[in-house]
Amino acid sequence: MKSTKQFVLVLCLLCSAPSMFAQETTAEEQKEPPHAIIPGEKAAYLNQGAITINISSLGIGLEYAHNINTYLNGRFRLNYFSLSDYQTNLDVGGNPVLLTTNASLLSTDLVLEYLPFKRSSFKLIGGAAMFFNTEMNSRVTYEGSLEYGDVSLDQDEVGDVMVGLDYSGFAPYMGFGFGRAVPKKRVGFGIEIGAYYAGSPKVSLEASKMFEPTATEEKEQLEENLQGYSWLPFVNLRLAFRI
Amino acid sequence: MKRIALLITAMVLIMAACESPTKDISLHINPTFYKYVVEIDLEDLSAPGEPFTGNVDVAITGEDEASIYGINGVHHSSGLKPNFGSIQLITTLNNEPTAGDPLRFTVEVSSSNNNYRKERVSFEVHEGEYYVTRSISLLNLYDLPSGVTQTTGNGSISNGVLTSPLVLKTDSTNGVTSKMALTIPSDINFLDAAGNAISSGSLDVSVLSFSDTAQSSQLSLPNNSGALQKIDFNGQTANVLFDPGATFEIDMNVGGTAVKQFSGNGVGVSIPVPAHMYNWDENRAYQAGDKVTLISHTYGDAAWNAEGNPTLVMENGKLVIKANITHLSTYKVLRDLNAGIAQNATITITNNSSKTINTDIFVSVSGSLQGSAGSTFAFPVNIATGESTSSSFSPYGTLSNLVVYSRLTLPEFDLTTSSQNIGITFRDPIVSVLVGYRLYCPSSNAYVVPPAGVKMFYRKSSVGGPFKHLFTFTGEDVSNRFHASPNLEANEFYDLKAYYGTYEVDTAGVKVIDRKIYEVNLPAELCNEIGF
Question: ipTM greater than 0.85, yes or no?
Answer without folding.
Answer: no
